[in-house]
């Protein structure tokens, strides 16, 4: 049975003054579960159980998370949205900031909750996140400028009926390319079957902060409450100026907070709607989209005003170009521009990979952070990293504008590790930039002349997960003030596995002077036969003996 989490605000603000180490241990195990009501299979949880309970801390606390790996494969944990300033080795991305935690070993993450907001913890090795290894991570505000009476968490997941290893194999092994049949997922709300929702209890006149978090790995969610407006005040851990909407359209990895004011009467109950959908796969009645509903209960037994689900194009949905970061900087000046394009990459050995830069991303043999920290002056030379790590080196204090184009018929939610990006502009691609879909499904190509250019106003909204719709571009900016490894990847698990990612290595020269790699992490690599220093393959200088060959693109079919 679904559990909705609500708690009074006054009890939180008192405690936050006492910054603390919040101790937590996760014994990561396999668990046989039936989460969608249809099929049981081996998933991944904590202490032989799913769902994993949400984690709550106060701003200024440090989450001390000890992870023991009881799986038969390596695992890492990433705190999605926390920046890890000065502690890049705690980012938890396998072969980027560390080697995986091997089976029967443990590692302790120290995650400073310096920013309040809505985040989550999840596996970041292969696609294990899709197997259930994920949990909300809520950092309560020390002093929120918006007043509300209760805090309600709604976390949303899509759920496959097969293990993530099958997904990985399906996109990475030779002769796996070509058209595929659509695979539709089921919806989970607060860890349980979306059909088993409990009421959200409202008291007339009270104000509720509704946190909506998507932990999905493929499909999108829409959330709305019939008869109520949502005042958006947060996106991806960043407080915003108020943004009034009818509903939230939430891509995988994204998070929102909205304040909802209850009606003054308890005469009626109302419906809240959670819709799981993928507009890049064929519509199928009862399957795509899937509609899940619950009750906003003002009074037990009160009649419920029915919510008719139909065309929602007349509703107002969230738009991050219309939001402003409440305490964010003005629009950054641009020192450097980088153009990226999300495309398919069909290989000569018949794999359907993906590129954001020039080659499909693939992990280095040495974690990218370790190369940046151990190669001296060469760390400023992008050639010292693997060609498939797709590295751009950003000098200290350089401001970068990244333009991401999406010329094909599938949207992409890009997550930026270790930074927040300003959302500057969105708009249509030119008609001659559009490309056929590589999904194998029939996708309707829109009239791009009807897509408007939307530009940020005032202080641009800051985000760590940015959706790039089909046939559109987005312009983003970030600062190189903080040394970091900004691994940037699509948060659709299959796309990440197929190589839709790049890396920005920011100020590695400064990082070498100001950060460390703990010996524990070095030894963790060595015990697994992995190198922990040197260039992409663990050699000195630009000697790349042992570097795997890069994928060869399949020739275009003859006319």
Task: Give the tags.
559 residues; 34 strands
Brief sketch in words of this structure:
This protein is mostly beta strands. The chain is about 10% helix and about 35% strand. Strand 11 and strand 12 form a beta hairpin.
The radius of gyration is: 23 Å
Q: What is the multimeric organization of the chains shown?
A: single chain
Identify low-pLDDT runs: 5-17
Helix content: under 10%
Continuous helix count: 6
Q: Mean of residue pLDDT?
A: 92
The strand count comes to 34
Distance between the termini: 57 Å
Give the class from helix and strand content and strand pairing: mainly beta
What characterizes the major β-sheet?
8 strands, mixed
What does this structure look like?
By secondary structure, this protein is mainly beta. 8% of the residues lie in helices and 36% in strands. The strands form seven sheets. Strands 1, 10, 11, 12, 14, 16, 17 and 19 form an eight-stranded mixed beta sheet that branches. Strands 22, 26, 28, 29, 30 and 32 form a six-stranded mixed beta sheet that branches. The longest helix is centred in the N-terminal third of the chain and has 9 residues. It starts with a strand and ends in a 32-residue tail after the last helix. About 2% of the residues have low confidence.
Which helices and strands appear, and what pairs or packs with what?
Elements: E1 5-8, H1 10-15, E2 21-33, E3 41-46, E4 55-58, E5 62-69, E6 77-80, E7 106-112, E8 117-123, E9 134-140, E10 150-159, H2 164-172, E11 186-189, E12 192-193, E13 200-201, E14 207-214, E15 220-225, E16 230-235, E17 238-245, E18 247-250, E19 255-261, E20 270-277, E21 290-297, E22 336-341, E23 343-346, E24 352-355, H3 368-374, E25 391-394, E26 399-406, E27 412-416, E28 421-428, E29 454-455, E30 462-463, E31 465-468, E32 472-479, E33 484-490, H4 493-497, E34 501-506, H5 508-514, H6 519-527
Parallel strand pairs: 2-5, 4-9, 10-14, 13-21, 22-26, 25-34
Antiparallel strand pairs: 1-10, 2-3, 5-7, 6-8, 8-9, 10-11, 11-12, 14-19, 15-18, 15-20, 16-17, 16-19, 20-21, 23-24, 26-32, 27-31, 27-33, 28-29, 28-30, 28-32, 33-34
């Amino acid at each position: 049975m679904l559990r909705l989490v609500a708690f009074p605000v006054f009890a939180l603000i008192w405690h936050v003054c006492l910054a603390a180490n919040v101790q937590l241990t996760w014994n990561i195990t396999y668990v046989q579960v039936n989460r969608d009501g249809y099929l049981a299979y081996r998933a991944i949880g904590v202490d032989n159980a799913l769902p994993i309970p949400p984690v709550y801390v106060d701003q200024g606390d440090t989450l001390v998370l000890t992870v023991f790996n009881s799986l038969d494969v390596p695992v890492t944990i990433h705190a999605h949205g926390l920046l890890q300033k000065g502690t890049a080795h705690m980012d938890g991305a396998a072969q980027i900031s560390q080697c995986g935690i091997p089976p029967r070993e443990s590692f302790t993450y120290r995650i400073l909750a310096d920013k309040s907001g809505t985040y989550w913890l999840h596996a970041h090795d292969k696609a294990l996140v899709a197997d259930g290894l994920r949990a909300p991570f809520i950092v309560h505000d020390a002093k929120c400028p918006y007043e509300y009476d209760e805090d309600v968490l709604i976390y949303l997941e899509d759920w496959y009926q097969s293990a993530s290893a099958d997904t990985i194999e399906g996109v990475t092994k030779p002769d796996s390319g070509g058209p595929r049949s659509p695979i539709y997922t089921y919806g989970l709300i607060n860890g349980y079957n979306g059909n088993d929702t409990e009421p959200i209890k409202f008291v007339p006149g009270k104000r509720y902060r509704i946190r909506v978090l998507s932990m999905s790995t493929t499909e999108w969610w829409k959330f709305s409450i019939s008869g109520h407006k949502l005042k958006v005040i947060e996106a991806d851990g960043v407080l915003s100026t108020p943004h009034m909407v009818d509903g939230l359209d939430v891509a995988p990895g994204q998070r929102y907070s909205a304040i909802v004011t209850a009606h003054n009467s308890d005469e009626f109950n109302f419906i809240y709607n959670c819709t799981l959908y993928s507009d890049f796969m064929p519509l199928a009645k009862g399957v795509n989209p899937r509609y899940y509903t619950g009750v906003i209960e003002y009074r037990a037994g009160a009649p419920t005003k029915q919510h008719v689900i139909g065309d929602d194009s007349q509703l107002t949905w969230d738009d991050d170009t219309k939001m402003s970061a409440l305490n964010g900087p003005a629009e950054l000046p641009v020192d450097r521009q980088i153009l990226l394009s999300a495309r398919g990459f069909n290989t000569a050995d018949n794999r359907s990979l993906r590129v954001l830069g020039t080659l499909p991303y693939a992990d280095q043999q040495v974690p990218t952070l370790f190369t940046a920290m151990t190669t001296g002056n060469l760390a400023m030379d992008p050639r010292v990293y693997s060609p498939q790590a797709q590295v751009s080196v950003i000098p200290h204090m350089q401001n970068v504008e990244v333009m991401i184009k999406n010329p094909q018929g599938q949207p992409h939610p890009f997550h930026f590790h270790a930074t927040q990006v300003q959302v500057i502009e969105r708009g249509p691609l030119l008609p001659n930039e559009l490309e056929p879909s590589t999904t194998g499904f029939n996708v309707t190509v829109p009239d791009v002349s009807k897509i408007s250019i939307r530009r940020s106003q005032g202080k641009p909204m800051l985000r760590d997960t940015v959706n790039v719709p089909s046939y559109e571009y987005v312009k983003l900016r970030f600062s190189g003030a903080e040394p970091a490894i900004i691994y940037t990847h699509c948060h659709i698990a299959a796309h990440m596995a197929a190589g839709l990612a790049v890396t920005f290595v920011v100020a590695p020269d400064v990082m070498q002077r100001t950060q460390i790699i703990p010996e524990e992490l070095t030894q963790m690599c060595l015990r697994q036969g992995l190198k922990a220093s040197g260039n992409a393959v663990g050699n000195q200088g630009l000697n790349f003996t042992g570097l795997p060959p890069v994928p060869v693109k399949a020739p275009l079919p003859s006319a």
